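Entry for the shared binder. Reason: the reviewer on the internal report wants the predicted structure included alongside the sequence.
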Amino acid sequence: MKIETHNDLKVFFDTNYRNSVISANRILNDQAAAEDVVQDCLIKLWGNRSQLKETTVAGYFAIMVRNRCIDNLRKKKPAIVELDDVQLPIEDHSQMEHDELKEKIDAAIDSLPDRCREIFVLSRFEKMSHKEIAESLMISPKTIENQITKALKVISSALKSILFLFFFS
């Protein structure tokens, strides 16, 4: 289907809108956000219509929707604070709590699988870039990213309860 007129866009909309919103909602788990994404993508599709081949419109649109959903998730994702950048206030009476937190962090890092822990330590404590780690371990930079993300999730999960108590007690 080629989109050249408003009527073509309406036909495309009627054919694809519902399934696109369903797909977006599966990614976002937010119906209103899914509808917004699909509508934004329709506007972008209309703006790029002259560059599209007739056979690529539906596939191009599906990829646009998926990518926009991923972008939205990235924007919503809370910033991850690097452990070595955290400056916790230490008062004399809270030295014990600080020590406990440090022990929990160390235990969480120690609980990581060997390769994951190695990559995390090289990144966070040895200050090596993803590229440097990838070259030294002969693995892809994407693997490095995945392993660091995995490590941060494990550490974050292990520290949730103690950080909650630390900040709200």
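Summary line for the report: The two ends are 61 Å apart (CA to CA).
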